[in-house]
Amino acid sequence: MTWSSIWLSRFEMGPFEWAWRCLTYGRLVPFLKLGRAPLNLNYSDVSAMDRV
Q1: For residue 41, which of 18, 37, 45, 49 is within the disulfide window of CB 3.0 to 4.6 Å?
Q2: How many domains does the chain divide into?
Q3: What are the tens digits of pLDDT across the range 3-49?
Q4: Rg (CA), the chain
Q5: Which pLDDT does position 9 carry in this prediction?
């Protein structure tokens, strides 16, 4: 349970949920929480992904 709390403090979802959503949506979905996004992330792309 401790590992789960640490994981979810950094990521939006678990690895299996992420893989399932990618397969279901037919594209890659964001994995990191927005507050910890890489510096080179294009935020116009993120807003388009949030509308799903």
Answers
A1: 37
A2: 1
A3: 788 888 888 888 999 999 999 999 998 888 776 555 454 555 555 55
A4: 12
A5: 83
